[in-house]
Amino acid sequence: MREYDPTAGGSFTELASYCLLPIIKLLGTDYKAIRFEFFKGKNDVDIYAKAHLSYHGAVATAKTGIGVKSEGQLLISGTNGYILVKSPWWLVKGFEVCYDSPEKNEDFTAPFHGHSMCIEIADFIRNIKEPAKWNFKLSPDDSIAIASLIERFLKERNLESVHQASSVCA
C-alpha cells in the first residue's frame, strides 16, 4: 500500500495536507518555528506524527496517524482563547470559540455545503474570518507552505533513519 511505502509513505505525507490547511488558512504562512514528533512502524514509516507550529500570539498542532487511533478534533489555540471543532472535524457541523470564562464561550452552527473536504474546510475558515465574504480559495502560497512543511518533515524523518542506521552499524 502506498501509505506504507518507505520512501514516500507515512501518516504525514498521506494526511498532513488536510490538517495543515485550516492552520495555514487561519494563522497564515509566517510561522516562527516548527517542531516535529513522530514514531515509526514497520518499514521505517511514520505511523503517527505531530507538527507543532508557533506563530506570534498563537500555536497550532497537526496530528496524523495511519497505524494508531486518536481523537480527530481540530483545535486552534490563541492568546485570547481557542477554537474547537469536535471530531470528525472534516465533517464540520459547527465549532466552539472558548475563552477563560466558560460562560463567554460561543457555539457556532452553520450549514457547511459541499462534497469535498476542501470545500467544507474553506466554508469553515470563511465563517470565522469573514462571514460576509466568500473567500475559500486555496492560494498558491498556501499550497507551497503546506508542501514545504511536508518536505521538511520528510527530511527530518529521513535524517533520523540515517542516524539510527549509523548507530546500529557502530
TrEMBL record:
Classification via Gene3D superfamilies: Dihydrodipicolinate Reductase, domain 2
Top-level taxonomy: Bacteria, Pseudomonadati, Nitrospinota/Tectimicrobiota group, Candidatus Tectimicrobiota, Candidatus Entotheonellia
Lineage: superkingdom: Bacteria
Protein name: Gfo/Idh/MocA-like oxidoreductase C-terminal domain-containing protein
